[in-house]
Amino acid sequence: MSEELTPAAVVRAHSQAKTSGDITGALAWCHQDVIFETIAFQSAAHGIDAARRQFQGFLGAFPDYSVQLEDLREMDDLVLGVGRIAGTMKGPLAGIEPTGRAFDLPFVCLWYVHDGLITLERFFYDFNEMCEHLGIDTTTAANRFRTWRERADAMIAR
Questions:
Q1: Which domain of life is it from (predicted)?
Q2: Residue 142 C-beta-side C-alpha neighbours within 13 Å
Q3: What is the pLDDT of residue 153?
Q4: Calpha distance 38→40 (Å, rounded)
Q5: Tens digits of per-residue pLDDT, 8-31?
Q6: Stated pTM of the model
Q7: Of 26, 76, 80, 127, which residue is most buried, by most CB within 10 angstroms?
Q8: How far is CA 85 from CA 57, 119, 140, in A?
């Protein structure tokens, strides 16, 4: 979006848009071929369209989702961040019915920023702790996410 901004400023703007529920605004800070990896879900979205679908699904499940950046460190085009994510499960996610419960978790994330745009986000947080906060059995959740990934992979293969 702007080559004048530092990579950390790009990440801050992207994260602020996500926290506001502004999917278009969040994706405006991303390269067309961006990759979003959510390690806890063992999933990756490749490209803006897949990222938009992933964000829509996640923000549909957690409409009050927020990202609190506590520290960002730049190393050339790599930004390393730590902070907290939070949200209340008000909609279904990967075939898991909403529980109405909230999560609040620490995270670590790596972003690669080239020419003012995010090209890769690799997001880490504790899947088991998230399930515990939400009142979801981890085995059930893992199975639902596996089925969800298989369906997504089948759609991509078409």
A1: Bacteria
A2: 10
A3: 60
A4: 6
A5: 999 999 999 999 999 999 999 999
A6: 0.89
A7: 26
A8: 16, 21, 22
